[in-house]
Amino acid sequence: MASDANVGKIVFVIAVSVFLYYFFWVSILPFMLIDEGDLIHSFFPPLKYAFILPATFGVVFLGGIAIFTLYHIWDFITA
């Protein structure tokens, strides 16, 4: 089994990789002077998904926090 330090390093590398991919996709790729059919565009989905995906994950995350909080408040009230 992996130690906590190794798991932390793996999570950190994954988080930095996702951040750099998203940063390049949103901040740099739209302003590059290359054709749409270029090879680099095949590594990234259309730009509209760069805003739809984080918004969807945010709504799901906040909904999960709300459900978690309401569950524990309800449990406290009924106890």
Automatic annotation (TrEMBL):
Ranges that cross the membrane: 12-34, 49-74
Q: What is a biological process (GO) this protein takes part in? A: GPI anchor biosynthetic process
Give the source's domain of life in one word.
Eukaryota
> Membrane topology per the record?
Multi-pass membrane protein
Indicate where this protein resides in the cell. Answer: Endoplasmic reticulum membrane
**Mind telling me which Pfam families this protein's record contains?**
DPM2 (PF07297)
GO molecular function, a single term: enzyme regulator activity
What keywords does the record list, in alphabetical order? Endoplasmic reticulum, Membrane, Transmembrane, Transmembrane helix
Cellular component (GO) terms are: dolichol-phosphate-mannose synthase complex; endoplasmic reticulum membrane
Q: Which residues form the signal peptide?
A: none
Q: InterPro entries given for it? A: DPM2 (IPR009914)
Instruction: Write out the pathway annotation from the protein's UniProt entry.
Output: Protein modification; protein glycosylation
In the record, the note on similarity to other proteins reads:
Belongs to the DPM2 family.
Q: How does it assemble?
A: Component of the dolichol-phosphate mannose (DPM) synthase complex composed of DPM1, DPM2 and DPM3; in the complex interacts directly with DPM3. Component of the glycosylphosphatidylinositol-N-acetylglucosaminyltransferase (GPI-GnT) complex composed at least by PIGA, PIGC, PIGH, PIGP, PIGQ, PIGY and DPM2. Interacts with PIGA, PIGC and PIGQ.
Protein role:
Regulatory subunit of the dolichol-phosphate mannose (DPM) synthase complex; essential for the ER localization.
Q: Cross-referenced PANTHER family, in alphabetical order?
A: DOLICHOL PHOSPHATE-MANNOSE BIOSYNTHESIS REGULATORY PROTEIN
Q: What is this protein called?
A: Dolichol phosphate-mannose biosynthesis regulatory protein
Native species: Glossina morsitans morsitans (Savannah tsetse fly)
